[in-house]
Amino acid sequence: MLLDDDRWAELLERRATRPEAAGERLSSRPRRPLLGADGRLFIVAADHTARGMLGVRDDRFAMVDRRRLLENLLVSLAHPDVDGVLGSPDVLEELALLGALDGKLAFGTMNRGGVMGARWELDDRMTAYDADSIAHGGLDGGKVLLRIADDDAATASTLEACAQAVTGLARRGLPIMVEPLPYHITEDGSAKLLDDDDQLLRAVAVAAGLGATTAYTWLKVPAGRAVSRMLSVTTLPALILGGAPGPDPEVTFASWQEAMTVPNVRGLVVGRALLYPADGDVAAAIDRAARIVRPRGASGG
């Protein structure tokens, strides 16, 4: 067990008595370049809880146990082919205090204001990191979620906020992941992902043009039925997102494998599907995904 009772107690103690320690650890940790020799990236995502997304498959509260989440992240980050983690401030600070981010990439999630299930869900404001805190806090880049719904005016403010985030990080020479997804508002007023390849293509096109420069923009896109067509609209590098875990992990792994054949796809950003696999074997799930990103097992660090 990587997070035993003593280590857990020490983490809780430092959180209470040394609030400055997390920032110090993030800023002073050993760093690495964005890309290694193979030009691939494998990032584990752990920013879900900051917008109220707590469930995995049929368990609505699978992610509420922070100790279990951190244990699974420690297992993931121990794999040599995992390049880093995408997280909200609480998660990244905890991992830094545990020493798990040394030599790894740390991407900070920025807009978590679109709380899952809320009426304002698509008015997804910057409530976590901003460009300054990423640049001066020892992080390696940022990420925004851009949900586009033609029938919800809140999309406009989210577009503007995401564009400002792209520009802000680019001015500091830092990469940003932009995750464009098409949504619509259902009859009961809730936001729902659109399963439509044409709408996804359109969302990617919009995301690819956000900000005063796209020099540091990476796209984070789903492994859908037409990844090659979706990404033909841009020359920007892309990472495949994991999304909600499906009932058959083999189908999921196969979709990632196929997506990796698209020329501007550089790797994976996957969270719940690997941190909470159906069989509970996090190490095996991580290793399986690592072999997809790096078939010959070459290290990206």
Quick summary of this structure?
The chain has 301 residues and is of the alpha/beta class.
Task: Note down, in words, how this protein is organized.
- With 301 residues, the chain is of the alpha/beta class.
- It has a single domain, classed as TIM Barrel (Alpha-Beta Barrel).
- The protein is 37% helix and 17% strand.
- It has 11 helices and 9 strands.
- It has an 8-stranded parallel β-barrel, surrounded by 5 helices.
- Helix 2 crosses helix 4.
- It is globular.
- Summarize the main sheet: 8 strands, parallel, barrel
Q: What's the CATH class, please?
A: Alpha Beta
Total discrete domains: 1
User: What would you call the quaternary organization?
Assistant: single chain
Tell me the β content.
Answer: 15-25%
Biggest sheet: strand arrangement: 1-2-3-4-5-7-8-9
The CATH topology is what? TIM Barrel
Helix and strand sequence: HHEHEHEHEHEEHEHEHEHH
**Apparent shape:** globular
